[in-house]
Design goal:
two-stranded antiparallel sheet, 27 helices
Length: 676
């Protein structure tokens, strides 16, 4: 019996000891990350109704956790498996399982950043929220124009127009339109202080009238220094009971405005046509920033009653109609400007020519009208989302070119990635080529280039983002393995030059990519910024040779890569590097064609730099075109940043003119079939 008790006690001891060791091991596991060197963050989504086990399997698949069994068991012991909520989370393999579970239980979801520029109206803001994936445009507009919701927030108006304060906000993916609007209105209320309310009262204005006036000033002002002077004009006209005669108010009242205001618009009666109605319109026409609000409340002391645009972002102000008419004749009725003569260009036109943008849709829509008419962009890039059939593509290309000309703009670069193989945006009935690795001789290259040029030209596309001149070496696991022409620099040079010559002989601009060569790269710049430690001597011996040949054969453009060549520039990737874009490509290799970035929406750039810093670098590095492939606020921010840099630096503005001269020279050469 005693022996049996001993056995039982030993068994119990071993069982408890084993359990203790097991639990201890489990808790030790919970404090050890899956990786101590991989700090890359990943967006992890827990879908509504998704079970914990299903979700944890995805964590293991993404490398966030290692031991699925221990992770699930630890979560169950702690009771976390029942507390995890749906949402978007930023997690990393360098986080411990315990930390991961704490984030999930605390519902520390990923916040999405949106920036509302000054002067945007509620439709434009709705578009921004939709692009950020926060809510549908229709739902946002429905809430933004819900009068009962407006009154609930203490706003004496029919809609929230004017009260959605321009700023940067952060929201989770599950946010409602009401929460977004509430945050913006709260910000407005914090800005429009009691002092401002008192000042509005002194001027004889209600808060709503003050905001309405501020919105008009916001839309009328090109130069921020003129805000208070423009405000004085409107105050002086209101005192004299003169009509405000503001074009932006007229435009706001037009349902389908095409970007070109005409005399018939000025004569059309709408509640917002201040050429027809006395006083202020019934409400704001945009959402003004703090400076416009201050200008409305604290106008300059002037006698001005008129102003006219000088087409350089500033205005000529007058106290009487005679002087005003002289100014109109001087600045508005002068000889029609040549859209290809840079001496006639405004700062806005110079800024816009530096941008090539992507968009949504398959026809000339509001987005394109805004990009071309307001931002004055120099080119567009087409993706599968923009393409349905040859006739549709041709109609799209012709309509955007006609609209650019109508706006007094140079013809647009209309570009596409049509390399063949895995990167071919045009599908059947366009000819489908198997890709660069399948080109076996010069005859194959000629057939590809001439067929592609003919098909692009027939639908109105004038620029092909090809050929790929990256040399993919046999001893490397190259990201370009399936897109490169080959592993021999001489072969890549010969075939690349053949493609360039045949494309450009048929009036399709060729863009060689990805300078100074990414054939040695194994990481994907769409996701992260790949480092490359090859020095200049190594690149000169191989990677750069196809680009030298392309330059000798007058390639129209060269695209910069998002690779960090650390032995050439330790700080900036090629697409932002003065040492690579200017010192190497411009000066050392003597290239005077168009230099453009790869897509600035790629993870390599977005994860490391904000768009304002990116634009500053591009302007400094003699890079001609910033390529932004996705519809979104980055395009508008880039445009505003270019204008800002022009105002603050004469050197940058001078460089900008040189850049646009290169752009116009290329357009005159290849787009000569457009007559003005």
């Amino acid at each position: 019996m005693n022996k049996l008790k001993v056995i039982i006690l030993i068994t119990l001891f071993l069982s408890f000891f084993g359990l203790f060791c097991f639990i201890l091991d489990l808790f030790i596991y919970a404090d050890i990350p899956a990786s101590t060197i991989n700090h890359n963050e990943k967006l992890i989504i827990i879908k509504p109704g998704q079970g914990f086990k299903s979700f944890s399997k995805s964590l293991q698949k993404d490398g966030i956790i290692k031991n699925l069994y221990k992770f699930n068991l630890f979560a169950r012991i702690k009771g976390y498996d029942k507390k995890v909520k749906a949402g978007e989370y930023i997690l990393s393999p360098s986080m411990t399982p315990y930390k991961i579970l704490q984030i999930l239980v605390a519902w520390k979801v990923c916040l999405h950043k949106i920036t509302i520029p000054e002067g945007y109206n509620i439709r434009q803001i709705a578009s921004i929220t939709a692009r950020a994936g926060l809510c549908a445009e229709t739902k946002f507009l429905s809430s933004a124009t819900d009068s009962s919701f407006v009154h609930e927030k203490g706003i004496d108006a029919k809609t929230f127009e004017g009260y959605l304060f321009p700023d940067t906000y952060y929201f989770s993916k599950d946010v409602s339109p009401e929460k977004i609007i509430s945050a913006m209105v709260k910000r407005f209320c914090s800005v429009f202080t009691p002092t401002y309310k008192e000042q509005a009262k002194k001027l004889g204005l209600s808060i709503h009238q003050a905001v309405t006036l501020a919105s008009i000033i916001e839309k009328e002002t090109g130069d921020p220094e003129e805000r208070s002077v423009i405000s004085s004009v409107f105050h002086n006209r209101l005192k004299k009971k003169m009509r405000l005669e503001s074009d932006p108010t007229v435009i706001y009242g037009i349902k389908q405005f095409d970007g070109n205001i005409k005399k018939r618009h000025l004569k059309t009666s709408t509640p917002y046509n201040t050429y027809k109605i006395p006083g202020l319109p019934p409400g704001p026409i945009a959402n003004p920033g703090i400076k416009a609000i201050e200008a409305a409340l604290f106008p300059a002391d002037t006698n001005f009653l008129y102003f006219v645009s000088k087409k350089d972002n500033t205005h000529m102000f007058s106290t009487n109609i005679r002087d005003h008419n002289k100014a109109v004749r001087k600045y508005q009725l002068r000889k029609k400007e040549n859209p290809m003569n840079i001496s006639d260009f405004s700062n806005e036109q110079i800024a816009g020519q530096r941008l090539m943008a992507g968009f949504d849709g398959t026809r000339l829509n509001d987005d394109l009208i805004f990009l071309i008419g307001t931002l004055k962009i120099g080119g567009i890039i087409l993706f599968s989302r923009n393409l349905t059939s040859p006739d549709q593509i041709k109609n799209l290309c012709m309509s955007v070119q006609e609209y650019a000309i109508k706006c007094g703009q140079p013809p647009l670069f209309i570009s596409i990635d049509q390399e063949g193989g895995q990167v071919a945006r045009l599908k059947e009935p366009f000819t489908q080529f198997p890709g660069n690795p399948s080109i076996k001789d010069e005859e194959d290259a000629v057939h590809f280039a001439e067929t592609t040029a003919s098909e692009l030209k027939n639908v109105g596309i004038n620029m092909n983002m090809a050929p790929v001149l990256d040399v993919a070496f046999d001893n490397k696991k190259s990201i370009m393995r399936d897109r490169s022409l080959g592993n021999d620099p001489e072969w890549v040079s010969m075939i690349g030059v053949t493609v360039i010559e045949r494309l450009q002989r048929n009036e399709i601009m060729a863009v060689a990519k990805h300078f100074p060569g990414i054939g040695r790269t194994v990481l994907d710049p769409h996701i992260e910024m790949p480092p490359l430690d090859a020095d200049l001597r190594t690149l000169e011996s191989s990677d750069l040779r196809p680009f030298y040949e392309a330059i000798k054969h007058d390639v129209a453009g060269i695209m910069l890569s998002h690779i960090l060549y650390s032995k050439i520039d330790i700080k900036w990737p090629a697409s932002l590097s003065t040492k690579i874009a200017k010192d190497l490509l411009r000066d050392r290799m003597d290239f005077d064609g168009i230099v453009m970035t790869d897509d600035l929406d790629m993870g390599a750039i977005k994860s490391n730099c904000d768009i304002k810093t990116v634009i500053k670098q591009i302007l400094s590095a003699d890079i001609d075109i910033a390529l932004i492939c996705h519809k979104g606020p980055n395009i508008e921010i880039a445009y505003e940043e270019i204008l800002k840099e022009f105002k603050e630096s004469k050197n940058i503005k001078t460089k900008g003119k040189v850049s646009v001269k290169r752009i116009l020279k290329t357009k005159e050469k290849y787009l000569k079939f457009f007559r003005f």
